[in-house]
Request: fold
Amino acid sequence: MNLIAFILLQFSSIQPQLMKELKVFQNSEGISQSTVSASVQRVSDKQNTLSFNADKAINSASTLKLVTTATTLSKLGPRFRYHTDLLYSGNISGGVLNGDLVLSSNGDPSFGSMRGINPLNVVFQKITETLQSLEIKRIKGNILIQDQTVYGFDVPDSWIWGDLGNYYGAIPHKFNINENQYTVFFEPGNSLNAPTRINKLEPFDPDWKITNLVKTGKADSGDQVYIYGSPGSENITLKGTVPIGKSNFPVKGSIPNPAKLFRTALIDHLFKADIEVDQRALVPMALDLVNLSKSLHLLNRFESQSLEVMAKDCNFSSINIYADAFLQTQDIESEGFKDFNSAIESTKTFWTKSVPNLSGFYPKDGSGLSPSGFITAQNMTDILSAVNEHTPLSMFKSTIPILGKEGSVRYKDRQNRTEGRVHAKSGSIESTRAFAGYFRDKTGVEYAFMIAVNRYAPDANSRVRSFLDNFLVKLGSY
Reply:
């Protein structure tokens, strides 16, 4: 019996069982009105080995990050690094910068983040040290930040307004800081429903107008806070509860205007280091900055970690702003920073070269945050099977968590039945739960897969979670 026949025989021993389980679950109480979808495809020859509602439109949730990271790694390469440049115009003489201090980025979502190699405090320190090394005591001009998106905010229309003020709804800009998020630290009251107090916000823009409506909730109730705001707005409203007895309880929100906050904080930092900035008043930060003088001189360059490392962070920790920044910068070297719509079209065009039929592929972003974006399970496995035509599959798989060991799937497969052979990205938003990735069977044959349940009844959440967890383990155990 040749190897292919052996593989088919082996899969045929479990495929009927898996199909039966999918059908039974699809018709079960609380699930029958939803969509259960699954696709398994052998990577070597792109042959479907399991297909259940695989051509139905479903919400991918965060599994979409696999498509986004695969696209950007394929186009820019795993060694690509983003950069943010510190520049100046004019000249330096007698301790005075006769011109402007300028920061220009190509869309690095990790700039100023503790997760990267240029955390915010280090950035401020390095800028200060750079100016001090040139004995600069005064900046006669302004501090300008090149960011064409400062007032031209690009937010997918399908994103929920209630998400935008929270950290997971932070939108990418050309210039980003601290993953465009801040942390507010609450002091709960001494009784249930008592008002809370805000101890501090980090980082903080003094122009923000904060309305705190957060109350004290039950012990161990966790973060039940919703932050309402919009890009560019200084008005922020906080509602919900934080648990009683948890002093200095942290909740993360999205920074409305990262460039403005950074500029304000940098001016204060330089002032403490005895470096004056003459033009402290905020100037218009839109077209004026696009048309800056071309006579700029480089002082320092802040490079990010490699794209491979950042893609791993994105998929392991499911960082929305990383995925959406990757989407918008996938063509940064040839076509520049793109808006969401044109970037999605570029993604689709790229994969059409390897996947002849992408019917049903209509995402609205790169992260999967949009509840109205959709793809099919067949789209997902078709793209995952085509990854090795553009970038090393082993490298891409290393950016996806191993089931039972890493990332958001580290607590799955506690008995280690899959023996580290499954790389899976999880995804979940309201009434949607999904997994996608790769598994390798005991003979070493590689498969791409996606399994998802969409639009299920709210009280079926635990059943959906249990079904998918068990299905995933069975899929990768043979």
